[in-house]
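[job 0412] stage=complex_fold ligand=zinc ion status=START
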Amino acid sequence: MITVIDRVAVSTVDAAGTEHLHGHVVVDGDTIVSVGSGPAPARTGPHTYVDGSGCLVTPGLVNTHHHLYQWATRGFAQDATLFEWLTELYPVWRGLDAGVTHAAASAGLARLAVTGCTTAADHHYVFPREGGDQFEALVSAGRRIGIRLHAVRGSMDRGRSHGGLPPDNLVEETEAALTATEKAIDEHHDPARDALVRVAVGPCSPFSVSPELMTGAAELARRKGVRLHTHLAETVDEEEQCLAENGCTPTEYAERLGWLGDDVWLAHTVHLSGDAVRRLGATSTGSAHCPTSNGRLGTGIAPVRDLLDAGAPVGLGVDGAASNEDGGLVAELRQSVMQARQRGGPKAMTFRQALWLGTMGGARCLGRQDEIGSIEPGKLADLALWRLDGVDHAGMADPVAALVFGPQPPLKLLLVGGRTVVSDNELRTAPADDLARELRTASAKLMTEDPLAGSSIPGGSR
Ligand SMILES: [Zn+2]
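[job 0412] stage=complex_fold status=DONE, emitting structure tokens
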């Protein structure tokens, strides 16, 4: 099936930064077959014609870090540090099960889709013993909403009795976590070019995971040919704990455990020395920059300009919905520019670089730079068509500035591999009313779960 998007502004985000103020994109099946300036060549055979007048087409946005289950636990610990926030939420997450995770992930992915996201990485690391097959529930939510999912099988094995932050009843045994991760890869990982689901390996963070799990995870991922993901260098608290326990910074600790390389992407990387930035660049280790979450938790501003200059891949992430209740990607485009300039001055990042981070930068982090992230013939047809002709954007001088700096535009169309996921700003793959009803039920379950075990109601006394 051919789809022609015509009379449209195009930002290809290719290596040359090619843009067309009046251009076209042609899709055949799941693949982009042509892009260029001027009207699309006349076509006589059957095809779908999309008049893109007043619109901008960009590559679909790529989200490199999320915790979709948290879509059911938003609004807690609103004014807390990361460690306080986690300590308040761990008891709530003890009630997680496959049903809650499926409802939360479906709703969170729906939110991502209507903000132009066509590929999302999700880091799921809380596996209560009675929770059923949460990983399958996550993957099925991805298939239901229809955007590409990089499902990271996370894990924690370092409870409080071993100096970790999570309660002991929320962590797994080291070997059990590795076994379950290998099973997740075997059941769900698809290495194909057009994969809708890939699996990565993701022990949660240095303060919730033993060094044995970190090294075992790296060995497993490399044996299976999948990618590695974890949180690193997010807060000063984490750095102080790492220095006290290991006598080195989080980045040095990661390197010691085999966790730097071009098959690794790290969430946050806020607190990095100059040496650490150079090591990430030299090893092509990726960073998932999550500016809204970093602002919500007041953790600091990541050195994105320095990382890019060092040659490290950097993508954008919304992070978990419990530390970014918005959960949309357009907001991160804008935030990434604001934070880069607050840190490094007005020349630290251009707004077009923000779009690069949200597309090609993310594709590099996920190892999919040959498949997605730019509009080029041969790449998968993951496209976002933004309406800029309404009262919020009409007349704005530059369509890319309208997307990055202006209000979030409505989506005329979102294609994933040529398949319509959003049209006229509405999700077409699942009824929004169903998603909302399931989410309400899931949140209510968690908030009433085990009330004597330390859960708390948002806004309640504690
Ligand atoms: Zn996170």
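The chain has two domains: 2-59+379-427, 61-366.
[job 0412] exit 0
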